[in-house]
Queue: 3 jobs
Job 1
Amino acid sequence: MAGSSWGTLLTMTTWGESHGKGVGVVIDGCPSGLELKEADIQKFLDRRKPGQSRYSTKRQEGDEVEILSGVFEGRTTGTPISLLIRNLDQRSKDYSQIKDIYRPGHADYTFDEKYGFRDYRGGGRSSGRETVGRVAAGAVAVRLLESLGIQVTAYAKSIGPIEIEESRFDRKEISRNSMCMPDAAAAFQAEDYIRQMMEQKDSVGGVVECVVTGMPAGVGEPVFEKLDARLAHAVMSIGAVKGVEIGDGFASAKSRGTENNDAFRMKVSEKKPVKTTNHAGGILGGISDGSTIVLRAGFKPTPSISSPQQTVNRQGENVKIIIGGRHDPIIVPRAVVVVETVTAFTIADMLLQSMTSRIDKIQKFFSEE
Amino acid sequence: MAGSSWGTLLTMTTWGESHGKGVGVVIDGCPSGLELKEADIQKFLDRRKPGQSRYSTKRQEGDEVEILSGVFEGRTTGTPISLLIRNLDQRSKDYSQIKDIYRPGHADYTFDEKYGFRDYRGGGRSSGRETVGRVAAGAVAVRLLESLGIQVTAYAKSIGPIEIEESRFDRKEISRNSMCMPDAAAAFQAEDYIRQMMEQKDSVGGVVECVVTGMPAGVGEPVFEKLDARLAHAVMSIGAVKGVEIGDGFASAKSRGTENNDAFRMKVSEKKPVKTTNHAGGILGGISDGSTIVLRAGFKPTPSISSPQQTVNRQGENVKIIIGGRHDPIIVPRAVVVVETVTAFTIADMLLQSMTSRIDKIQKFFSEE
Amino acid sequence: MAGSSWGTLLTMTTWGESHGKGVGVVIDGCPSGLELKEADIQKFLDRRKPGQSRYSTKRQEGDEVEILSGVFEGRTTGTPISLLIRNLDQRSKDYSQIKDIYRPGHADYTFDEKYGFRDYRGGGRSSGRETVGRVAAGAVAVRLLESLGIQVTAYAKSIGPIEIEESRFDRKEISRNSMCMPDAAAAFQAEDYIRQMMEQKDSVGGVVECVVTGMPAGVGEPVFEKLDARLAHAVMSIGAVKGVEIGDGFASAKSRGTENNDAFRMKVSEKKPVKTTNHAGGILGGISDGSTIVLRAGFKPTPSISSPQQTVNRQGENVKIIIGGRHDPIIVPRAVVVVETVTAFTIADMLLQSMTSRIDKIQKFFSEE
Amino acid sequence: MAGSSWGTLLTMTTWGESHGKGVGVVIDGCPSGLELKEADIQKFLDRRKPGQSRYSTKRQEGDEVEILSGVFEGRTTGTPISLLIRNLDQRSKDYSQIKDIYRPGHADYTFDEKYGFRDYRGGGRSSGRETVGRVAAGAVAVRLLESLGIQVTAYAKSIGPIEIEESRFDRKEISRNSMCMPDAAAAFQAEDYIRQMMEQKDSVGGVVECVVTGMPAGVGEPVFEKLDARLAHAVMSIGAVKGVEIGDGFASAKSRGTENNDAFRMKVSEKKPVKTTNHAGGILGGISDGSTIVLRAGFKPTPSISSPQQTVNRQGENVKIIIGGRHDPIIVPRAVVVVETVTAFTIADMLLQSMTSRIDKIQKFFSEE
């Protein structure tokens, strides 16, 4: 059954395998009149590109995006935007090792069980390369949100045991270090930690946090299409994510009502209520409350490690595998832009959906035609 | 926009407000031929009913379910199953306190922002009473899963700071204590802790864990309809849930690849690979791997507390609120059956979807007609 | 698989069998603030009720609608509107004739093939009684459209060989005759024709036409969600419909470009282009062009006839059937309100969808918040 | 809002404009293991290619399809199949005539009203070139249906006033004449008729019929996802279609029950009931009955004609337009393969959906795993 699409009014459909001809995405439902050029998308793709630091894989992916449709004279037309990124790295390789062996922590076994066989070249569709399409689509959503004054920012909150320090939080720092951390000191420690793990032929997990500012209140649809439920879906669908939190998340399960409830106070200047704290992470009853949306994604360590592992092969034999080649010892830094863009896409879609909730606003909309 | 439906092939659409005429659900896409009677559903509704222990609200809800359609001579017909639960507690009350005041931690403010006004009686649609429909629908999904040998079990894993002890885990204990904990000693401590919190006019959060056994491998659709993404969506859509984890969840973010990867070994008796550990929680690449599915939901403390709180009213004035009446000091015990049933429903839906993944199986299916 | 829902932003999910406990519908995504009371819905249900004329079945259906949710203090709240219509006619009957025999022209055989068995009482879910839910939901959509100045009107265009005369077209006449024809003379002839057919134990088909006035231009989504495609889907989903036309329909297949193209001219008073003819039926490229939408549905004759027919039974034997009881010799007059309401519902849904097509309008919408 | 996708389990998302970089489609949900190569798709694209006869436009479109993903070692993998067809005809042209003028019968005006502006080059997204993506996707569905013994065949039934003669029906003739008619004599007359219309600077409509053989009974979902409703939706979404019929269609509206009902008789050899006639067109109650599915689409005349027409321009002035260049005087012959492939796609999708209707078959499916 189909599962490569996301969104209701603003949708994306991604396609492509790691070592096939390319990867891409079709974005449908993007409103007309939005200025969009390839560079707007390329800058997001560049952020997820490997080879950005010495801790990521050296594969030379140009990852150059081509807009095939939906943009005319520099603006979106309202029709589907098809984006193509050719794979450069298609040269025939020796895949004999992974062709018949199920790598632990990977989807090799489950794909074979589900489909009877799989495109084993570099993980095929289950490769992290699948996220190229999401990032490209999310870049378009970012343009849409920007035009409405909404900003989405993600960063690494922790890498292995190294966590950022709130007191040192510096948004500008995120793009300055290879860890994508808003804390230079923590990034330095994290790099060191990763170096140790690489020497031990091991890999590391971490947590990505994402904040959305400038949100209007009223976005999100009860009961099953709550904003937090949609965000959890989107974020959990990123490979290697094993946990999602909104606001205080699991910490609120240990909290008390007197601590966890956010008080409202009138903001006189804006004539609207604001919350004095934000344990809720900007969402109440599944609907945005006008404060900053805060979410976190917990990533497991990269499953590809060069330490020997026990597993089985397609023939049903117990075997040992040592995964060769270079692999990112950590997914998190490259995943930051993935979390940011799927969040942006999901927010944009829900924002459009929220336009139809009140008859008075609908009447006003059509009377102004 | 519509948001009260869940599922693709097996769907539910819930409706109803806390103090309206009733609540209910329409289940569509349920296969024909499943034995189903009201008692099959009632037993699940009884588990979420208040008044089960002295720590839950005393509202007298009969919560008796009536099957209005879709069942004929004791079996499902394949057509929509409409379930109705009349509200008994509709007597006119004094809602003046909450009518104009935004209760902290509740959806009062966001509903008003979204819709312009709200049914303020007992929280209306944003009340936890909304879950009655989900539980009823999930009960039908449980019947479907049982007929395929799949079992779903949820329980309280922690309440405030009290966590169950793995060594004392006893599944039979879950239904024996009012905390729904599989550990009698922890349940005893938790009851005591709640008692203290009530005395302090405070409330408590906790964590619900849910396990699914008997799952075939191959269920879940890459890329956006991964089994874990769907489960995260379903669980996060339950009111008061602020975090969702699969398998080791956020702990895996602090783990290493050598620890976190699950090795495969051949199970000779069944001629298939099994994992020697289950850090992944039964899902690899978004597809079930045949081992037990494990997920957790973190619930915030009940927002309704009788301690004084600062907030604003509809007129834009800063006010103080003390929420009267009796309220559950903890959501978790009553939420256990909610997590269990939405998990069951989501699994059942994805299971049906997985039937169309291979042409050889499709050919076999139709050739046997 | 589920098939009882319709709509994207404004949705309905119908349920219920002919001789079960009742029929109903859940409407989700209806904007808040719309005035709605049971009488608004009841008047549409009364139009489809049998027993209105001597040519329709005498079954005494009260068909009284109860609003169970989604309306508070006389206005829609934005949450699901659940409507219940209890079946009065549930007394145990002798269904032995149709229990095991496949009535020609009915869905008895196909339901049995699909589901293994069926609720045979009065056709169960495949009965025309299913349309009660659609009509009730459509009545809500009519309220929504009215608030935006859009009117939907359906009527019988032909019954058997009797067609209305354009020169005698009188909208007020529609509700005055039992044929729902906007032409008193044609209605008189049609009644006479039906009388003859009843004497011959035969039944009659006909054509329903529906027009939508007050439509803004720009409604409908290329490519697969064109307004005409959605309308065709909705109308063809009504039992007994075998053909759907937009504008000139099949006549345009015999026309020429010079005849069939509608010229545009500026309407100076409104400063906008209008078409001098309307062969297109108000839709160009799947998008409303601001002129009247015109569609037609062709209904087959009622399959239930009391003439002897050849068929087979569940045991695989050739048998003869004479369908007893009273049956409408024609579906069309009661189907008029069904076509009208499904058209209204579909238009309303597409209207809401059209709000998100342009970024300038979206920016204006949110800046006015 | 998004509208470029079709299907539930088997989906396609088309993209591309007439004179943009290319057109294409992403097919998702195609089962794994189906043999598929570019030539399987190319042969369908070649059938819709212009320049096949002297009555179609001379534009040189190579229309060569490239499979970008979803096929590995000659078989579908179960993941999205992305198909790309580059436009060759992108050279800069003089579009000044149609840039600001609304061509009668085209979507120029409605696109401008909806989106604020449009890609005016050759009709952009509203061009018939959009169907390339559908045909390519439908070709994949044809492969799926063939593997299950189901055949879909479309042909021109009438062109202007020229209709095929049942007695001369010859399926092999369809591919032999440029009219795609299964009747050589009718095709000869139709060609002559078109020649006359071209001389008169006029254009012609027609009717395409499509038949599906080898269908199992039980496909189609009541109530809104009836097989005929889905087919009507799919076919009406093809540009220039103004009417859709199933079986006897509008003729049944003039028929009587005794004529229109199809009798069942046991087919002893197959131990199943068959119908002695097929007025219903293979669908009863929205569910396939095992006999041949028959549908028809009525196409309006090509709106592009070189006769002078009255219209308005973007500046709101009344103007005259004479559409230059060569245009097909008839859409029908090239549309035959479009009707055939969207029918195939829709049938394939509904076929997959029908697999989950009975618990006994589901149990069998999973027990055989």
Job 2
Amino acid sequence: MILFQCDYNEGCHPRVMEKLLETNPEQTVGYGEDEHCARAAGLIRKACGDDTLAVHFLVGGTQTNTTVIAAALRSHQGVIAAQTGHINVHETGAIEASGHKVLALAHRDGKISASQVAELCEMHLHDASFEHTVQPKMVYISNPTEYGTIYTRKELEALHEVCRSYGLYLFLDGARLGYGLAAADNELDLPFLARCCDVFYIGGTKVGALFGEAVVISNDELKKDFRYHIKQRGGMLAKGRLLGVQFEALFEDGLYLEISRHADRLADQLREAFKQAGFPMLVESRTNQIFPVMPDAVLEELGRDYGFSYQERVDETHSAVRFCTSWATKEENTDRLIADLKRLAQAV
Amino acid sequence: MILFQCDYNEGCHPRVMEKLLETNPEQTVGYGEDEHCARAAGLIRKACGDDTLAVHFLVGGTQTNTTVIAAALRSHQGVIAAQTGHINVHETGAIEASGHKVLALAHRDGKISASQVAELCEMHLHDASFEHTVQPKMVYISNPTEYGTIYTRKELEALHEVCRSYGLYLFLDGARLGYGLAAADNELDLPFLARCCDVFYIGGTKVGALFGEAVVISNDELKKDFRYHIKQRGGMLAKGRLLGVQFEALFEDGLYLEISRHADRLADQLREAFKQAGFPMLVESRTNQIFPVMPDAVLEELGRDYGFSYQERVDETHSAVRFCTSWATKEENTDRLIADLKRLAQAV
Amino acid sequence: MILFQCDYNEGCHPRVMEKLLETNPEQTVGYGEDEHCARAAGLIRKACGDDTLAVHFLVGGTQTNTTVIAAALRSHQGVIAAQTGHINVHETGAIEASGHKVLALAHRDGKISASQVAELCEMHLHDASFEHTVQPKMVYISNPTEYGTIYTRKELEALHEVCRSYGLYLFLDGARLGYGLAAADNELDLPFLARCCDVFYIGGTKVGALFGEAVVISNDELKKDFRYHIKQRGGMLAKGRLLGVQFEALFEDGLYLEISRHADRLADQLREAFKQAGFPMLVESRTNQIFPVMPDAVLEELGRDYGFSYQERVDETHSAVRFCTSWATKEENTDRLIADLKRLAQAV
Amino acid sequence: MILFQCDYNEGCHPRVMEKLLETNPEQTVGYGEDEHCARAAGLIRKACGDDTLAVHFLVGGTQTNTTVIAAALRSHQGVIAAQTGHINVHETGAIEASGHKVLALAHRDGKISASQVAELCEMHLHDASFEHTVQPKMVYISNPTEYGTIYTRKELEALHEVCRSYGLYLFLDGARLGYGLAAADNELDLPFLARCCDVFYIGGTKVGALFGEAVVISNDELKKDFRYHIKQRGGMLAKGRLLGVQFEALFEDGLYLEISRHADRLADQLREAFKQAGFPMLVESRTNQIFPVMPDAVLEELGRDYGFSYQERVDETHSAVRFCTSWATKEENTDRLIADLKRLAQAV
């Protein structure tokens, strides 16, 4: 059985593991105040081209989203997100449990636009009973999105502008950021993200680390007291240096983008193979998530040898599913799947 | 200027005020443990035909909704409601501030159906990552809804059944309950509500009282410790007897339904007048809220003499607005408006 | 049975009731945006000698405390209060339910001092793991306190200074403010409170109104968006004008202080009578709450004719109890109690 | 510089690291539903002698405490803890941020007693306004406590009994459980804990793992839906198998207790050396935390070569500090410190 259902089926990249092994006996202070965290933060600031950025390391995505949002909002404020946004559907109400409403917008392939944000803000401002509704104060986007799509430079700039106009914070969830930045059609880079977003994070869990997300804060308002929130939301790892060590490995020699490119390249090959075998994509993208629409009978057969995840029913006999590649995907496995797809196509 | 924009423009019904005046010098214990509250609760239990019901008095609607929902749910559970439900749009995120997600469903004239609830529950149960999503545990409906519509006996029974099947609580927001029960096409009554709902409330604020909502709980699980929650959510009035006194007045001689009928009768007259003047209804109903669609120019003229509230834009030159009647509406005022509508129709 | 157990056993002062009656048929807009609220706010601003103050009207004390505190604090911040403070003991954890820790300090007769606040702040600042502890951001005091005591001018100034030094908000709970301002030994007045506190409230529920608390905000940071919080916490009364009307009555002719003086004068008489009868005070004060320490046997006898509330056990045969006077207390009733105390004293 | 300030200065035990390395390339499903977690849970159930226990793996202590408490309590309920309990002082108000009050009791060397719990419950039950106070529903204890002390068999049984009597859950925080179970004067074992507690956890972070806490639930009420809460509170690690793998290593050959004994043995030696050098203990215990009281001048000198943490001021010239040993402490380092203490003693 070969697993393609997500991008966290394996442990970590060997170079990350090596560094964990090598630093294991070291004595350091706890809670992220050690030298590895300091060095990793420095490498990230450098990669972002801005040495005033605050960089913090948290353990996982739900925790990071909750911490950033709860730290930023007052109790009457909410966060705008796509209906399909991770915080709106797949975090067991973590944002609401911290007291805040997710203001969900219709999505286009997982994305939302500046004009949708403007429209919601205008409605709020002109509502005679605006104080009876949640005040929008933050925009949450993910890049890549839950559908594998990415924002263009222009789209992100427009979101930045609309947020500035209406006094909103822009927060980008980069749980899979590497796979976005490494995509064939990507227009973004870290310095651009640091300029456009008030806060974003660079996902490690899905991109080569055992776990860990690096939060990058450019807005001074959000920098203040952030470590209190990390602690309160359970994200302050006692042995914080584990996070620093992993991000050192990922950022000291360009490993983060290098392994992301590997995943995207294999995803492109797989996507092509699905299409050539006659299985169209639910959503087009060039990152590591692939969403073919396939006959249920074919899926059943494929499911004997390959793990993938169910996305949604398309019609009575077809479903969309998700295959993921990652930094850990072996080319021999994608080759085998490609060969099987060809075989299946001929059989159908 | 005659105000029709809501059903809380005036104080309270003279018989309620009289009773407040008469009992004003009495000494009673506080926090709803007095004899007026006991007697009012008894009257409501009797009207509901069930002497095992728990009856509590709270001050206002947002408070009541938050208290009932927060008392019923554990932190990983959410409440299903229509997209247009009051708790989803007009309580400044009070439910989320208490830690719970509102699981919004598409509405039909403000209503949701048993089949929609079943579908959501089935999706939750069959989701491979169901523990990553909020567990549905309560259904919130309002009757009349925010669009003035009411549930039929069959619809409510179906909701009751679906809730029982999936282990959900059924909660009916009766902020305007009187206007529902008194409507020409109403099929419901209090005993039926007490059987179908785990908890519902009888609105006083909008139906003759200065303020106050009577929560009626039939499900034993929800009865337990409910007064702690009233106190915690700020709903335990020090002079709780004020609530008891008002509900005594409303329920000792059938005043509650009597004044509701008055409002619905005038609403029917007004609705008819709007239609005859050529202004169609956004939503059809027989309760005290009226939603005519009118040319913006006509609205501007009408706005000089009458207060009404803006509902939504219909097209470039037309908007839907809301006129409300209430227990306090004077027939001379509706007559005047009807005459003006006739005049406007001729002018157009 | 004559009730002395609290200061909310009766309805409202006749002049308040008269005004409610008189304005009952009026049509006004809802949610506190009517002219009565505007006028009442103006009267309070004038009484405080500062026309830049924001004044809002809420229904009850728990609600007001929760709303003010939740509006002011970010999620990692807590509120300092006396161990005996109302928010720490008698609000069913309402502050914690809004997400904030009450940082309790030892009290002296219900009061806390500037030096205690400074000490806590210093400890926080010098704690190596300060980010692992709640950040103090507000000081909550009540005046009169839960023990009937009041702050001197010097004590309040010192609290104001220490709050300014450490960047804390000073919040004064004035649920019984009138009885403090009217006390024989009082040194404070409204203009002084408005200068010293970032926010305080003038209690109506216990001082002549049916219900209602007037929140007075002097700090601009706390003024921003406050109405959203009122709505979210369930304190925005639909018929908000009821609050305005009552505070108009209380503040247009000095009624608020006049009726407070009445209560304090009778309390002084009662206190004197207790002492002369040989029953010492648990706590000395000159406001409307009286805390005699009495033999349990005497309390049992007294309990047949008078309602009072239990405070605490003093020794095996003595307890401290609480008698309250209020704006509504009849002199014939205090006279009767005084006579009975004399009789009891002779009997003992 | 040799660090003794805490028990999480190093990475993980070599046998844990070895297993992480060995399993690193494996493909498994995520979120703790893999075979390593299943096997580790089985080993723990076996060690506890009860195969009906639910076992879950979370990342860290604050997260575990918040998740367990928030999952167990309804919104009007609070958790009883020692004033010095970790949840009351060192989690940045995480429990309050989840909506619950910590009901703090005076401690004796970090411990609380059954009689204190009974007294608090009796007070609550007999309070005329009990609904105005938080309902106690859980008792939180730590073993070892924050002062390194441990509960006797009799003390824990008494707590179990009192909890059963008053309908409270008993929750034991075992962040340092190994060091308690391995202490010279320990009377407890895992089966006894599983019988006495409704829920407890076995700390990995401080006892040989990189991170991770194993929650053991015996009460069926608390088992229900627990994974939703793990996800909501950010504790569901994507690569959950990392937790399983580490607890396999700790529990398959008795490693957990073996390395705990090592730490306690060195702590006993150090403690003896402090005392012989004339430095008394602030609190007596036999676990891995040592609290000597020392002259400030000596501490300054010692601080040049050794890391330790500040505990509290004892008098003008003396402070109590904390030295910790752990599974990772090298005997050569404790020997060196012992030698230095002898030298310092002679110098003083």
Job 3
Amino acid sequence: MAKVNVGKKILNANDTYALKNSELLAHHGKRCFNMISSPGSGKTTLLVRTISDLAGAIKIGVIEGDIQTDIDAQRIRATNAPAIQIITEGACHLSAAQVHQALQKLPLDNLEIIFIENVGNLVCPSAFELGEDGKIVVLSVAEGDDKPAKYPAIFAKSKVLLVNKIDLLAAGALIDFDLERVKTDARRLNKSIEIFPVSAKTGEGMIAWYDWLKGQLARK
Amino acid sequence: MAKVNVGKKILNANDTYALKNSELLAHHGKRCFNMISSPGSGKTTLLVRTISDLAGAIKIGVIEGDIQTDIDAQRIRATNAPAIQIITEGACHLSAAQVHQALQKLPLDNLEIIFIENVGNLVCPSAFELGEDGKIVVLSVAEGDDKPAKYPAIFAKSKVLLVNKIDLLAAGALIDFDLERVKTDARRLNKSIEIFPVSAKTGEGMIAWYDWLKGQLARK
């Protein structure tokens, strides 16, 4: 019983900060997306390419969540975009309170979209709202086509699924990944999910993702 | 404060079962390894190949941990090895109590090594002892060479690091993965970690891993 009660209290405290974040972002007229995936699916590379390709079109800032190291924030800052690093020191997801602090440090007035790159974990971050406009789940083709079936929660909750590293399919190195299975399983969990197969490395498929982002700005 | 106390209580309850599991395994003279990785690093494929290649040499049973579906247990059973499925229904790691129940269902007398395939998650499972003889961390080359630096806990605690999918390096599809960086970073965290670069798909490097397993049996 104690476990259940305390778990609920923690979630409520988190939701209180999530609401604050949501109000802060709405007040400033900013869009915010919470990017979630396994370690190594390519979240940072996707962000670096998106920021570079959209330079001059969309002003992007990033909140970086990592268990250790600021390797990812350094990679973002190399694009000249502002990046605030949160080091969780072992915690398996970002909390809304951590994001609330990071939002104070970003130059919000100069930004249009804030990406939160969550800790690499396909499970825990899906349970914690951060005040975002939507979740974006990233799946690398190298992880296999059974992941929506095996880790359904995040696919059920996300606005967008980016299927990354499709260059590995083109290279013929991976012949046992069935993109149609991923689409079918993801849409069974979430009828309205937008799915973009992309390669952050070669740029293939990225235009459709950029168009979706631009559409989000038009809706603000 | 409440959070810390309750967390500690849960860990102690877990450790109680971990001790029971450890005693049960020692009593039967069995070896047990807890396999941990991100989703999609190839744990199940590694186990399927290991079981098949060692058929007649080592009798292996598997405890499968998944959030949803028994896809992985079905793959193991297709090799004729016994597999007990634990579905965690959202929980991000296996508990020692779950493993305790599963151990009762395995035909222990007919087995020499029990592999526990944990939930796909590079973070949470590292904090929960299951009564195993050692942890085995699996890293796919597609996940990138920065993972020991970014997710240090599991690399610090594991007996073995299997660097999987090295066929992707040979195919020239991945040119930005530095195996030496992985080795250096993992050994900085854990001087005694054994590192085997392997491809469960092509079989490359698997012999060294099998020799290590045989050596573990000799030590029981």
